[in-house]
């Protein structure tokens, strides 16, 4: 394995894992369980790095998991964007 691909995989795991720290800190501040928008952004970024790594490794299970996850994270961001538009009086 090249150092570059090791770095891609490690960076993806760090970004992906950091979303849980973000969610935990946001929930502690709010004193209730919340999922901030940046949780989904970190999910997408981390997932893309991990998906690239999985494709490089030619691991179909890992590819499937990260590919489906990416779609779910993107959909959640789209839903949040739609909710924001409704709150602001948009259509």
Describe this structure in words.
With 91 residues, this protein is mainly α. It has two domains: 1-36, no CATH class; 60-91. The protein is 85% helix and 0% strand. The chain has three helices and no strands. The protein has helices spanning 3-30, 37-57, 60-87. Helix 1 (3-30) packs antiparallel against helix 2 and helix 2 packs antiparallel against helix 3. The longest helix is centred in the N-terminal third of the chain and has 28 residues, at 3-30. It is globular, with a radius of gyration of 15 Å. The termini are far apart. The model has no long low-confidence stretch (mean pLDDT 90).
**Secondary-structure element pattern, one letter each:** HHH
Helix content: over 70%
Radius of gyration: 15 Å
Give the termini distance in whole angstroms.
49 Å
Helix count?
3
Structural class: mainly alpha
**How many distinct beta strands?**
0
Mean pLDDT: 90
Question: What share of residues are in beta strands?
Answer: under 5%
Main beta sheet: strand number and arrangement? none
- Outline the low-pLDDT stretches: none
Please outline the helices and strands.
Blueprint: H1 3-30, H2 37-57, H3 60-87
Keywords:
single chain; 91 residues; mainly alpha; 85% helix; globular
Short description:
This protein has 91 residues and is mostly helical. The chain has helices at 3-30, 37-57, 60-87. The protein contains three helices and no strands.
């Amino acid at each position: 394995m090249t150092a570059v691909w090791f770095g891609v995989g490690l960076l993806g795991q760090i970004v992906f894992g950091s979303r849980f720290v973000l969610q935990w800190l946001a929930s502690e501040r709010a004193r209730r369980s919340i999922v901030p928008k940046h949780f989904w952004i970190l999910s997408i970024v981390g997932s893309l790095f991990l998906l690239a790594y999985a494709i490089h490794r030619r691991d179909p299970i890992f590819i499937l998991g990260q590919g489906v996850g990416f779609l779910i994270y993107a959909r959640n961001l789209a839903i949040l964007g739609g909710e924001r538009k409704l709150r602001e009086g948009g259509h």
